[in-house]
Amino acid sequence: MVVPKKLWPLWMASAAAAAASPSVTVDAGTILGGQCGSGNSVFYKAIPYADPPVRGLRFEAPKAYGKYPGGRLNATAPAPACIQFGDTFKALGKTSEDCLYLDIWTPADATEDSKLPVKVFVFGGSNIEGGISDTLYDGCNTADDGAILVSINYRLGPLGFMALESAGIHGNQGIQDLLLGLKWVKNSISAFGGDSDKIVLFGQSAGATDAYIISALPDAPSLINSAIAESVALPSLASNSSVQTTSVSYAKSLKCDVRDKKCLQGKSTIDLRSVYFSDEYLKTGLGAADVTIPSVNSHKFWPYVDGTVIPEAPSAVGAKVPAIFGYNQREGMMDTLTKYNSTEAAASATPAAYTKFLKDNFGPAAAIIEKYYDLSLFQSTPLPVIAAISTVATDAEYKCPAYASAAQTVRNNVPAWVYEFTHNSTCVWLDTMPQAFIDVFGAAHTAELPYVFGNLHFDFADKNSSCTGTSDEWSLSKEMMGLWTAMAEKGNPSTNDIHWPEFRATTNGSDVQGMVFGNFSRPGAIDFSVSHKLTNWSANVSSLGACRSDRREIVLYAGDIGVVATGNGQAAGNVSDCTVLVQDIGMNGNSFSAIKRNKRSKSTK
Q1: Looking at the structure, do residues 529 and 577 belong to the same domain, yes or no?
Q2: Which of 51, 58, 83, 253 has the fewest CB neighbours in a 10 Å radius?
Q3: What Pfam families does its record include (predicted)?
């Protein structure tokens, strides 16, 4: 080809850019990526790992992707998020049912011989929202740490977790998406410079639950060498009966016969979303626990033990690979914000509001909970009622599950570690979190994410903000990224500079050794004493009064009082004829009082 002289500069610039563009070749073809701004890392975005789950593939297990058209893939544009069934994450950009993609970030100098550790991330969002293209999860800085980062999109809401036996829809599609994505990583990551034997699966919130589910599968060791659950919210999964009931209600609200899969596959995504939020669906078949206004949370689709994809609940078997379980000091503040969304509103909260909160969410167990969380314990805080509600929510949703998950894992002679993130961030990391709340209460839900990803510039939360992390915060972030990388490298988070002691259950749950992320990373004691006493709490504060477990009964140990809740079948989700027995073990072991509970429903982050 002859290039006219006047076009030489343009042609040379184009040729230079093409030469500088990173590329890798996998079985499907050649992938063309881009460079991060620092120049130290490169990215490959929107790599398809499955065929588009549309039309006849909607509600089905994912089908592995074939070859790239023309043998090449331009992987420089962000992937669309899967169809959203929530509205917390409003800045995700494009959404599509064709969404089964993954992103990869690597050091710029990585080669097939590098054998770098690999960190695979599962985003949170209650399994109804979120996506890999959220700038909070940008991996340019994590690749600077000498590791490879992968993020996987998975189907959400009914598209990802609907199970309707009468229509031949078997559920857990979102978990199957993640498993297929992991298999893609296992088979292809060496082309990017990764070591397929050094893969840690880590997730946050619902993503932590999904990561824990996968880590507890029998074949987990063939896919990953370790797992990290940040803010895991899981003592139990949905029951088959509750999933079927939810799906029947949804199908009827879509005006589909419950046996007609083609009708469900033919509905537009607009219809799927609008019906999900419709009064008709919210009021059909299910009711929210102890509230007068039906809540979409009581109708959420969720992973369940189907005997095939998920043979057993992770709470019953623990992780099959070394695992970290952690929580943030004020996780429950995020839930509290849904009602008290300003410091002025929070200041107006009365003791009566706390009593109502306990009764609404714990039912007959409210008095037991209040025994350990008496409002007088919080009088020294600026907003005692909010502090009390937030603390109960934190312990119930996240702290107790972290303790229980670690304890169950080590029972199987698999090592586990725990952490508490307590750092008060200088800058707001979510546009839904007022700085005033952070200043007063500290590390809320999601607070650790900027540090895990090394994204402390914070303009992703507020485009008009110039706030950035302090030098100490950048150091904390570097330490955390290094510990996460060490977990991928060797299945143990300790580094040459920081020793992270393994989890060992203590007699009463106090002084459990773990890692505390405050102004810096330090090994230290974490007080799980209440978690020890209140084992097997329900996973979500909006349904803590529910009779829920992945077994037929749960026991909440509360000092000298035990609460045994039994239901008709696996009592996760909607349970009718649920009976709660309160036993005063310490005073007289045969004294029982029975309280009838009906139609408790669940909502899990």
Answers
A1: no
A2: 51
A3: COesterase
**How far apart, in whole angstroms, are the C-alpha atoms of residue 16 and residue 555?**
66
Apex CA 220: angle with CA 216 and CA 224, to 5°? 120
- Look up residue 323 and give its DSSP letter: E
| Residue pointed to by tokens 């839900």 | 445
pLDDT (average), residues 129-134? 94
380 is catalytic: no
* Distance of alpha carbon 93 from alpha carbon 311, whole angstroms: 36
- 39 in any annotated domain: yes
- If one counts every other C-beta atom within 10 angstroms of the C-beta of residue 76, the result is 16
C-alpha distance across the termini of the chain, in Å: 59
Q: What is the CATH number of the domain that holds 374?
A: 3.40.50.1820
Q: Is residue 569 assigned to a domain? A: yes
Residues 339 and 464 in one domain: yes
| Residue 140 sits in the same domain as residue 208 | yes
Quote the radius of gyration of the chain (alpha carbons, Å): 24
Chain-centre distance for alpha carbon 140: 21
Domain C-terminal end among 188, 203, 230? 230
Residues 438 and 506 in one domain: yes
The pair of structure tokens assigned to 461 is: 């939360």
pLDDT tens digits, one per residue of 24-64: 999 999 999 999 987 899 999 999 999 999 999 999 999 99
Parallel, antiparallel, or unpaired: how do β-strands 416-421 and 512-517 relate? parallel
Q: Sign of the CA dihedral 515, 517, 519, 525?
A: negative
- State the Cα–Cα distance between residues 159 and 536, nearest whole angstrom: 29
289 and 298 in contact (C-beta within 8 Å)? yes
Burial 204-221 (b: 16+ CB within 10 A, else e): bbbbbbbbbbbbbbeebe
Kindly state whether residues 420 and 508 are assigned to the same domain.
yes
At 139, the amino acid letter reads G
Work out the burial of residue 41: count CB atoms within 10 Å of its CB; fewer than 13 is exposed, 13-18 middle, 19 or more buried: buried
Q: What is the DSSP string of 442-489?
A: --BTTTTHHHHHT--S-TTT-TT------HHHHHHHHHHHHHHHHHHH
Per-residue pLDDT tens digits for 441-480: 779 899 999 999 999 987 666 667 778 899 999 999 999 9
C-alpha distances in Å from residue 23, one per residue of 76, 404, 462, 537:
11, 44, 33, 49
Q: Answer yes or no: do 287 and 373 share one domain.
A: no
> Are 44 and 94 in the same domain?
yes
Mean of per-residue pLDDT scores for the chain: 82
What is the total count of domains within the chain? 4
Nearest to residue 572, comparing CAs of 280, 181, 246?
Answer: 246
Phi and psi at residue 59, in whole multiples of 5°? 70, 0
The structure tokens listed for 194 are: 């990764």
205, 215, 405, 521: which one is catalytic? 205
Q: Which residue has the higher pLDDT, 249 or 13?
A: 249
The whole-angstrom separation of Cα 356 and Cα 363 is 10
Q: Look up the domain containing 287 and give its range.
A: 240-299
pLDDT digits (tens, 9 = 90+) for 551-602: 222 233 233 233 333 332 233 333 232 233 333 222 222 222 222 222 223 3
